Amino acid sequence: MTDGIVLAYLGAALAIGLAGSGSAIGVGIAGTTGTGIMTEDPGKFGLVLLLQALPGTQGIYGLLVGFLVLTRIGIFAGVPEQLTIDQGWQILYSCLPIAIAGFFSGIYQGKTSAGSIGLISRRPEETGKAVVMPAMVETYAVLALLGSILLLNGVVI
Amino acid sequence: MAISKVKKFHIFAHLSIKEQLLKELQKLGCAEIIHIGGKTAFHDWENIDDIGNNTNAELNKVKFCIGLLSDYEEKEKKGLESLFPSKEEVNYETLIELSKSLDYEKIYKQCKDYDNELNHLKLQENKLFAIQEELKDWEELDLDLSTVEQSKYISYLLGTISKGNLDNLISESNEKIKKIVIEQVKEDKNTSKIAIICLKENTEKVQKILQQYHVEMYKYSHSFSGTPAQILEKISENMKEISERRKQIQIDLKNIYNENKEIYKIYDYLIIDKEKEEAISLLKRSKKTFVIKGWIKKKDIPELKDKLKENFKAYEIQFSEPEEDDRVPVALENHKLVQPFEVITELYSLPNYSEMDPTPILSLFYFIFFGLCLSDVGYGAVLAILCYLAIKKLGMEGGAKKLFTLLYYCGISGIFGGIIVGSWFGDILNYLPPAFSSIRYLLVDKLSLFNPTDNPLPLLILSISLGIIQVYTGIILKFIDNVNKGKLIDGIMDQISWLIFLTGIIMVLLQNMIAPIFGKIAWILLIIGILTLVTTQGRTNKNIILRIGSGILSLYDITGYFSDVLSYSRLFALGLATGIIATMFNMLAEMANMPYIGIFLTILILFIGHVFNLLISGLSAFIHDARLQYVEFFTKFYKAGGISFKPFGLKTTYTKIISKN
């Protein structure tokens, strides 16, 4: 194994771990509000669950980038590529957009989701708007995912 | 565009036919009745007070019965069908007859009695349970305390003492007080339950000593007699009686339910009645006549006229166009194919009556974008099939049917999306045995137009181009709107100049790819665009310098258009994500290739993984697609804020009203 691959591993780990943590915090924030609302009206379970799940996508994007890295460096094929240090750094940097933006957008999307849950508890007819608000935050996770994919695609191995 | 034209109507009629007329209107179900309002010719007319029967109270009674009885409903249907139960079809006339013939007051009384009894039993049971818990500690005390209580000379005390103190207590009280018996009834780890019997005259002294040793006193709080063991037996007998009685009540209630399923119909009848009463409260009357004001769709007017002519003589009806300050209700009216997409428009907000309905154009974009976001043949097919079955089998109606039809279309769109990127449950076709490789070749390599994992740029460019098209469409729609309102000049200055400017920018960016002559045109367009924008955007300012200044500032809006267009890159990213996650699960499933249980594990992973991915990707496709419409498209032209048209009709929960013939 070469040194480059260690950096690539770090990149994949950061993408999966940081984006996943952001989602976990976000889903947690939304969940706490959701359970509070459900003590009043347990019938809202479906909607609350939907809104709680919204900040969960960052974790998936992170996993996705991590998976792309692992495929790229040939882990699944059984024969890891010989990476130079430069290539390793390139892969590590490609992972950073989703790792960083995933972490922070997950948290803030969770807060927005919590707000939306509050909204549907008082005005159930505004569900459409409540669902779109958290998606505004998610935009930046999607853009970060796009950035990571494009950067990763540019790495020459 | 596709907003139903509505007209205002006033009906005047003699008070004697008020009920029948409203009943006919309700059966017709095409008119919305509204409040007459203060500043009209009718300002000195009175409200109608004799709204009559106490429907709300009756409704509450029936609601109570249904709440109690529905627990005894036999659940025959499973799963999805219980979510969308098929409604029994009834005739409105039979419903009215039923409400007269069925003595639901009696059912209510029965239910109320049983409910009271059940509550009472519950209360009693709780009480007994509490006593039982207390007495358990004293079970071994072989003394009927009620007889001691009646005695003239002796009294008893019960208490809990910590074990260390027990010996001291016994010795001290034996020393200080004559004739005292202290007996340990029960002991556990740290404490002892003790019974003390002494002469009545010594009671206070004994209590003082007990206080010194921190004895926690216990007093009976019930009216049973006998030794604790006997009492406990009695209690368990009583509890048994209670539970038997409860079982009997439950059987009775079940019988009541089975004999009186009609009560659901009564509920619907009362709901209809209540709606009618609410309508009556909107009317106004003079001495002998009353007036109804409302809205009706233009196309329903002949039907209303016919119905009224058929049934009544003493009435007068007038129609008028909506006036400027009226809050005109909005009903969307679209082609059958476009109709499901009204869901998306309604989620945002209905258009104003005077504006256009964006649904027809939105539907096309929504359909295409969803396909790109989901972009998997397998998922699209599963979604389409499930929704199709749901619509066919469950007999849905109204909003639910609209939503599922929308999802059905979305599924079909997902299939197309999947074909062009060559995604069939991710890369599952790669796992087919070599013999099928020609199928794989045909489906993936031949049919697909893009290969986003290896070369992402073409699909990304497609997404952005679609974005440019939609943003242009939005600007053009606003221009058309301005022209329709007679503001051609505004339209040219605000929209056309932007279109020229944007086109110029795009062409300049692409000038290496197009013929050189276009490169010159591009710069010309760009300059024309900038000049018109700088000179016109500040036209509301009188000061010439401020005017130019705000004109130049308006160029800054270009960042808005830039970010709008870039936002469409999500189409590409979400589509790619679906495919990669699916591929990931396929790979995981293949890794589970171990002897004996491998095949089950593989199937399990495939099933759970793909269901999960379908849910997550479907949800984000739905939401992000809607977001693109709302934030990037609607902001260019759409004026929301309409109120929905809610016709006065027969609204039911448990039954479906059919007309007589």
Describe the overall structure:
- The complex is a heterodimer of chains A (157) and B (661).
- Chain A is mainly α.
- Chain A contains five helices and no strands.
- Chain A has helices at residues 3-40, 45-53, 57-72, 85-122, 127-154.
- Chain B starts with 5 loop residues before the first strand and ends with a strand.
- In chain B, the strands form four sheets. In chain B, strands 1, 2, 3, 9, 10 and 11 form a six-stranded antiparallel sheet that branches. Chain B has a four-stranded antiparallel sheet with strand order 6-7-5-8.
- Chain B has 23 helices and 14 strands.
- In chain B, helix 2 runs antiparallel to helix 10, helix 17 (457-484) packs antiparallel against helix 18 and helix 19 (516-536) crosses helix 20.
- Chain B is 59% helix and 11% strand.
- By secondary structure, chain B is of the alpha+beta class.
- Chain A binds chain B through residues 50, 53-54, 56-57, 60-61, 63-64, 67-68, 76, 127-129, 131-132, 135-136, 138-139, 142-143, 145-146, 149-150, 153, and chain B through 346-348, 456, 460, 566-567, 569-570, 572-574, 576-577, 580-581, 584, 587, 616, 619-620, 623-624, 626-627, 630-631.
Amount of helix of chain A: over 70%
Query: What percent of residues of chain B are in strands?
Result: 5-15%
How far apart, in Å, are the first and last alpha carbons of chain A?
15 Å
Largest sheet of chain A: none
Major sheet attributes of chain B: 6 strands, antiparallel
Total strands of chain B: 14
What gross morphology of chain A would you assign?
elongated
The ordered H/E elements of chain A are HHHHH
Estimate what percentage of residues of chain A fall within beta strands.
under 5%
What best-fitting shape of chain B do the alpha-carbon axes yield? Answer: extended
Quaternary organization: heterodimer
What structural category arises from helix and sheet content of chain B? alpha+beta
| Average predicted confidence as pLDDT of chain A | 90
Fraction of residues of chain B in helices?
55-70%
**What is the radius of gyration of chain A?**
18 Å
